Amino acid sequence: MSDTVATLPASTNAPIRTGRLTRVQWSGLILLAAIAGAAAIGPLLSPYGANEAVCPPFATPSQNHPLGCNDVGQDLLTGILAGGRVSLAVGLGVAIIATLTATLFAITIATRGGIADLFAMRAVDAVMALPFLPLVIVLGAFFGGSALTSVAILSLVLWAHPVRELRAQALQLRRADFVDAARAMGASPWRIATRHIFPELAPLIVPQFVRIAHAAILTESSLSFLGLGDPILKSWGTILFHANARTAFLTDAWLWWIFPPGLLIAVTVLALALIGHAFGARAGEGSDAATPVTGPRAPRTTDAPLEIASATIAYNRRPAVHDASLHVPAGTTLGLVGQSGSGKSTLATGVLRLLPPGATIDAGSVHVGDADISDTPPRALKTLRGQCVVLVPQSAMNALNPVRTIKAQIREALRLHASGSAGDDRVDALLAAVKLPTQRANAYPHELSGGMRQRAVIAIALANAPSVLIADEPTTGLDVLVQADIMALLKTLQTDLALTVLFVTHDLPLIAKSAQSLAVCQGGRIVERGTPQSLGKSGQHPHTRELFENAPALRAQKLWRRPPSHGPAVLSLTDSSLIYGTGTAAKLLGRPRVAALQGATLTVRAGEVMGLVGGSGAGKTSLAKLALGLAKPTSGTVLLDGETPKPGAIAHMVFQDPYQSMRPGARVADVVAEPLAIRGAQKDENGRLAHALTAVHLPATEDFLHRRMASLSGGQRQRVAFARAMVTTPRLILADEPTSMLDQSLRAGLLALMETLRKEAGVAFLFITHDLVLARHFCDRIAVMQEGRIVEEGEADNVALTPSHPYTQALMRAAEF
Q: What pTM does this model have?
């Protein structure tokens, strides 16, 4: 796989951050810089004092006085330049104080949570409930007019609204994997706030600053015009106040006394609005765009409901898909499989022309039914999306609006295309079709399980009876039972609704059970196509054979066999339980008590690989939190190397998603060295960085150490995660689904790496997974969890091949293919 393909965006739906300013932003910055620069060097531009009488009253503009004079003979240009310094100082001063207050408030309550968050947000609600302008006028009249008073009053009022926006993002970041990783390494709240949350909040802090400055300048000018400012201190608002009070409107003097400061207020506010608009536009740029087709079209060769002919797609002129052709016969499923970065998702979203900014379709055509999407204008294309062809994206939680109910989102899909009734009967019918209980229609996305959310996304996609469905990794991150349910649902829907399905995935065993045909993608090219059976037995392309060889069956010969470990216990849980909802904040908010772990007993010995298998919500992550010292057991005991666990000790966590467990903007050197920095050690103490990177088969060169995580492929990122784990020579690594986001070949390489680390460094592994096949082949022993309990434990072969508990038997049936 080439570096070009490997470093393409992981998700075409994610916003792309760039360091470049937009043209709109440059316009605003240039306007603001010109006004601020002129105000700053005002004494050099005008030889007069702002309060000095230098010309006859109401003198008209002249060479010596370009804007004339006011009624007491003061030069108006000098006054406007001096007023600009005051107005801009007030606006920027308020923006700095209010933004700093909002940022500190948001980060503090997000990192501490609980009671602090509860009471802080009630204070914010109280401030926001007060009427803004009347409050400012009353406070201004009560405290009297002065620049400092204006700054204090406006700062007091304007800090609250940004807190809500910044807090929402900070709370989301608080739950991010890279923050959990830092917490698991023993990072202090201050380090988490400054090194992880603040850098990610920075892109939102800047537009908040701009908006506050915008509001402060406008409000200060309004208050001064109303006479609530300092009448002696010149500002643009006081200039207008005096002009109004001294009958400038009744003479021609308004042209040079009133119009210039009013225009400067308007231009300054416009400049700040342009800067703020540019920041907002960059966050969602391209979200509703139609990627242009710039090159020659290819003729249609079949009557299939979906045909892609000779498609060539590039990102910023770097090829990602080369001359790809596919057709999906009516009522069938075509599985598009390949490694991460192979171009399969790019090809799938290219069908809908929903590629991110910078992407172009340089050649080819796409036909859905009778429509040539490559020639369809953007307005008509919006109609085709949803009515003829739909996309089911990878992350259901990100695809759903978190503040709207499922019913509201289904109705919205129906109203967008006006396709019949959007009433409760139609919503209930769609929910019934995807086997989602109709009483969950009024639920919000966070109230549903992962499988339910995916069913809701499918219901929304099917709202307008499309003929073609594109599913882009719809089962990634779901446990095997939920995966099986989703696949069975899609098969039923395909039969009932005559759907044509393009299923994009890196999970070859999953799609091989359901698809009528497979297309193998490598390096942006379709390298082979055929039925799953024919490709599995006699695939011609080396990459096809590699994919099948790296997808072992449940009952195949075990790939890793090790002698039983008789070493000391590294991790020991005895009758351990963990109940959430017992804290003061939970009681005040009326949150229910949830038993995440109930009476768990488990031992992991030195050099052993223990598998922890179970579905979503089984309690696997809660057990890992106890092992890391991130939570204390409600009852029972937890010992890590014979002592009470504490973060950053001898255990380290490797998370499921390599794209989320490390900040995209962080450098490799900083990521790997963070455990050392948390312990107060030197960044490269005894060459540990180089040793850790070498151990995971990554280069320890200066160039690689300075690369940003966003520039690495998924496999490289997960190796960096293991290097970070190894830099402090841990006794135990908790690997939480470390391979589920990776394709088959990368998965095999990462497991081989883990085995090398086990042998050479003597590391024990708690391998957390929902994949019984993978656990059987890689682990020595397996413990199966269901609803917070360990329901079965034993040697890997015994548990996986001859299970005794009904839940394990269900996992086994779902895993066989």
A: 0.73
